[in-house]
Amino acid sequence: MIITKKKLVGGSVAAAIVLVVWLVFNPPCKFGYCCYAYTTYNAMPRPLSDLQIRCDGTVRKIQKTHALTYEMIEWLLDPLPEVLIVATGWDGVTQPDERIQNIKSCAVHILKNKEAIALFNQLKKEKKRVAIHFHSTC
């Protein structure tokens, strides 16, 4: 099969368009397209992954749980964020323990995923130091 210059240029242009569209809807350092069991963060698709993202941008995949303990989110507090968001799932099933709700060293928001994503992206846009625990399913 012979690849002509015209086909090569056309394919390169098509790939560039797809990349630009992907990045517009899935921006770096923010949440992009997300739905039940599928998360895009930092332009990277992360199916079935629960995530924690520190205010310095460090990301880690964590074990799924509906009973969120203080010890499980402690990693998010170093370095200390201005705002900690706990995304409790699309249906709000995850229950953070009382010690998380009573953190005084930063503002704490406990929200369902849709609201948590919107707040996280807005605070990142405002250059706030924000950390998030994100439960990707129920």
Helix content: 25-40%
Total helical segments = 4
CATH class: Alpha Beta
Number of domains: 1
CATH superfamily: MTH938-like
In sequence order, what are the helices and strands, one letter per element? HEEEEEHEEHEHE
What is the residue-averaged pLDDT? 94
Strand share of the residues? 25-35%
Query: Structural class, from secondary structure content?
Result: alpha/beta
- Taken from the alpha-carbon principal axes, the silhouette is elongated
Major β-sheet strand ordering: 4-3-9-6-8
Q: Report the span from N to C terminus.
A: 49 Å
Architecture per CATH nomenclature, i.e. the level-2 architecture: 3-Layer(aba) Sandwich
Low-pLDDT segments: none
Helix-strand layout with pairing:
Blueprint: H1 5-25, E1 38-41, E2 44-47, E3 50-53, E4 59-62, E5 67-68, H2 70-73, E6 83-87, E7 95-96, H3 98-101, E8 107-111, H4 113-125, E9 130-134
Walk me through what this model shows:
By secondary structure, the chain is α/β, with parallel strands linked by helices. It has one domain: Hypothetical Protein Mth938, Chain: A, CATH 3.40.1230. The protein has four helices and nine strands, in the order αβββββαββαβαβ. The strands form three sheets. The protein has a five-stranded mixed β-sheet, covered by helices on one side. A two-stranded antiparallel ribbon has the order 1-2. The N and C termini lie far apart (49 Å). The model has no long low-confidence stretch (mean pLDDT 94).
Tags for this entry?
five-stranded mixed beta sheet; Hypothetical Protein Mth938, Chain: A; 138 residues; elongated; two-stranded antiparallel ribbon; alpha/beta
